[in-house]
Amino acid sequence: MAIVERHKQELERSAAPRDRAPSVIEFRGVSKNYGPTNGGLETASFSIQRGEFVFLVGSTGSGKSTLMKLLIKEIEPTAGTIRVAGRDLSEITRKKVPYYRRNIGIVFQDFKLLPDRTVYDNVAYALQVTGSSRKEIRAKVPDILRLTGLATKLHSFPDQLSGGEQQRVAVARAFVNHPPLLLADEPTGNLDPETSVGIMQLLYRINRTGTTVLVATHDATMVDRMRRRVLELHQGRLVRDELDAQYARADMNTAEFGALLREPSPEPKRGPQADRQRERDAAREARDEFDDIFPTDERP
Amino acid sequence: MKPAFFIKEAMRSISRNAIPSFAAMASVLVTVLVLGVFIPVVQATTGAANEVRGRVLVDVYLKKDATQTDIARVQALLRDKVAHVGKVAFVSKAQAYAQEKKRNPEAYQLLGANPLPDTFRVTPDTPDNVLKLRDALAPAGVAGGRTPVDASIEQVKNRKDETTKILTATRVVKLAMGGLAILLIVASVLLISNTIRLSLFSRRREVEVMKLVGATDSFIRWPFVIEGVVLGALGGVAAVALLGVGKIALLDPLSADFALIAAPQTIGFGLLAVVLLVASVGVSAAGSSISLRKFLRV
Hints:
The complex is a heterodimer. Chain A is α/β, with parallel strands linked by helices. Chain A has ten helices and ten strands. Chain A has a domain at 2-21 and 51-73 and 95-103 and 179-294: Rossmann fold. A six-stranded mixed sheet of chain A has the order 6-7-8-3-9-10, with helices on both faces. A four-stranded antiparallel sheet of chain A has the order 2-1-4-5, with helices on one face. Chain B is of the alpha+beta class. Chain B has two domains: 3-52 and 167-296, no CATH class; 58-158, Alpha-Beta Plaits. Chain B starts with a helix and ends with a helix. Classes of the chains: A alpha/beta, B alpha+beta. The A-B interface holds A 72, 74, 95, 98-102, 106, 112-116, 125-126, 128-131, 173, 177 and B 1-2, 5, 12-13, 16-17, 205-206, 208-217, 219, 298.
């Protein structure tokens, strides 16, 4: 995998000048309020080191997307400081934001591909934006598409591809500039489980080249299986950050990684009591929901 | 940065969004066409109105016994001392008699002698000043009557009814035309910018994605502006071509018969074409870049 080697070298070269590289992401007491009563994120503090693969979990509205938007400086925090690669985001002026974003690969749940461009052009656009020469583009794009398994779809349009393939294009586009940080907001939210495994393997492969990967998801089984660092948000608060949990080996290859994802879920380390309680809760919730839709007296 | 790339992007987006592009082009075409017809029409109408206003004048009748020196004195007075004087034409008794006799030979046959006085026909510097001119020549006296400024002037007359009628009528025409022109220009700008806005609105997702990939504002904006310029130019050229065809096919055969159409004050076709082209290109380019601003704030 030539491109992986090359990317590794590239990353090491860029990291070399600073011996003790700062955390890739550092949140210090970051809050974001959308209104006086409408909190997005409350005093979140954590840091992510270079080369980590981190999951960000939480239900809808827990602040995952807010955190992602803060990271790409789409919105500004109401309090606290965010540092990315040692750089305070509040110091980046509006004009410099595009240049900052070129150092971050972003993958979304809804792919966000340009519908009127082919797969090739979609990926090439990320390079054209940075002012790459045509020669460079012609060298890099087929390479990255081969890495993501899309070598045969170069000239298809997004609407001719399956969801999984579209997400692969999005990942390819996010990674073509070899960003040191890759953010994925619910990358498997629209995909079936098997395709999701493929996307996760792809992200893992990217992570193995040294890129820091932060994945927001609500797919709990996936997270449980992967056994990586997990940040959990609940109503805007950071409620879990398993820094020292039993993580999987960091050096497993992609195939092993895929097998890990497909094997039956390892029983989460929860007490049996808690488990039964959880089942009861789930059952009651389902019943309540059913009652809401079909009130009891009208049920056949 | 890279003009070739931007132009290629603009062309690609025109061909991929053929229908909105066509709509934008068509709205430019229609408004330019209407403007192209309207500008000469306004000019011809105001030209005609001005020509009618040019006929407004003040008659200064001298006394019957005015001598040659009196005439010279009054002429000097009119030329040098009185304000708002435009042109002064002298019609002697004999000339006036000849003119009137020609117009109404039987009546003057009966008269025998020449009853007409020497007359100065004074045109004001601008038609609106005609009443001031009259006041200057014959200030209203305390008793209500008017006393001419010179002893040898019998009467100062300003064909009152006719004058006020002409002034009001032409003013109404001018104001109406001006109002219509402003309305039309406002409507054109709104129509074009709205069409552009619509076609951009359907692509705001695209803009959003571009921003997320790290495109700078100018990198996103240039293709859109070029697209606006191209569509505006296409619409403008088509409209000018249609105007040219219309002028040759419809107007030129008629202008031989109708003085209004042949009025010399209307704008030349070449100049009109240039003005319309510049306006259409300018409005569409400005329209796309201004409309894009909203979507660029991601």
